[in-house]
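Researcher: Let's try something more involved. This one mixes different molecule types, so please make sure each is placed in the same coordinate frame as the others.
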Amino acid sequence: MNILVCIKQVPETNKVAVDPDTGVLLRGGVASKMNPYDLYALETALRLRELHGGSITVISMGPPQAEQVIREAFAMGADEGVLLSDRRFGGADVLATSYTLSQGIRSAGAFDLILCGKQTTDGDTAQVGPEIGEWLGIPSVSNVRRVIESSPEGLTVEMDMPKAVEIVKLGFPCLLAVDKDIYQPRLPSYVRKKATSDRKIRILTLADMEDQEESHYGLSGSPTQVQRIFSPESEITQEIWRGSGPELCDRLYDKLTELKFV
Ligand SMILES: Cc1cc2nc3c(=O)[nH]c(=O)nc-3n(C[C@H](O)[C@H](O)[C@H](O)COP(=O)(O)OP(=O)(O)OC[C@H]3O[C@@H](n4cnc5c(N)ncnc54)[C@H](O)[C@@H]3O)c2cc1C
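Model: All components are placed in one shared frame. Result:
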C-alpha cells in the first residue's frame, strides 16, 4: 500500500505577529512543530503499513525550514519526504494551498491512500483535506475516528459527525482526514532519527508541477483577501473564593446547580 501523509509545520505558540498590510503571518523566528493532528494521520499510516506493507511518503508545503517536520516524520517511521517550497507558493489561502498540494501530490507519485489531519492549530479551517480530494477527483471523508477494516482494495471507516456516526466504505485511491481519537501517536525514535539524518528530502518547486501557471499559486491564486486580523476580546471572568473546606464545598455545589451542571 502506497500511503501519502500531508503534514504541516505550525507555530508552537499562538502569539504569532501578523503583517498589518498583507494580513500574512510573520512566522520568522517563531519555534515550530508538526501540526498535532498530523501525528494522528502519520500513526494511522504506520499502522496500515504494519498490516499491509508498502511505503509511507510525507509531504509538506512551506518554507525550507519545514524540512524539520519531515525529519520528525522519518524519526517516527516514514520512508520518504517531499517538500513543496517556492517563493511563488507564499501567501496562499486555503484554495491555493490545497491546489498546490494536489499538484505536488501528482508530481510526487501514485498513492493508494492520502491521509491528512482533521485540521491545523494555526489556520484551523479543516478544508485542505477535502479540497485536495476534489482537486484529485478521488473520494474523501473527514472526521475519521476509527478504521474498522482495511484490505489492499480499500477501507471501512467510522466518521464522527456532529449528530451521528457514519460508517463508510471506500475503495482506493481515496483520502481520509483523521480525528485525534483514532490512535495514540508513537514517539519519534532516537535511533531512527540518527539513521535517517542524511536521508534526502525531495524539493519540488513550481517548475516541477504539471500546471506551471504562476497565477494559480500563492497570493495571486488566492481568492480570499484578509481585511483585518485581530485577537478577539476575552470574555473569561475569574472569581477567587476564600473560606473553610465545607463552606467552599457548599458554595461550589450551589454554583454548579445554578449553572445546571447538577
Ligand atoms: C489570504 C490568506 C493569506 C495567507 N497567507 C499565508 C502565508 O503567507 N503563509 C502561511 O503560512 N499561511 C498563510 N495563510 C494561511 C494558509 O492559507 C493556511 O494555513 C493553509 O491554507 C492551510 O489551511 P489550514 O491551516 O486551515 O489547514 P486545515 O484545512 O485545517 O488542515 C487540514 C490538514 O491539511 C493538511 N495541510 C494543511 N496545510 C498543509 C501544508 N501547508 N502542507 C501539508 N499539509 C497541509 C494537514 O494534514 C492538515 O492537518 C493565508 C491564509 C489566507 C486566507
